[in-house]
Amino acid sequence: MSENKKKPTGLIKNSKITPKNQSNQIQVAKEVPKKTKQTVAKNQDANIKVSRQTKNEIDILMKLTDNKFSYELIETMIDHYVETALDPDKKRAFKTLSSL
Question: pTM value?
Fold first, then answer.
């Protein structure tokens, strides 16, 4: 009789209980490779952090101008700054460094 009541060694699979998050984990694991394969547009390859006030000011300027995207407005501001505030040597250095 002692041989029949021997405890099993190893893991026992209980088919009545299934983890709730198992299907979600499988879906998330399948979605991750898809995102890494997507190509990023050239104008969306970096992020910058600005204060909330600066973000609000950019949004207001976008409404007042014909720019659809923030990067367009920022490029315009950079171009204007380079042309008006920098001396010729710094303009040349900026253009050289930005073309690298």
Answer: 0.53
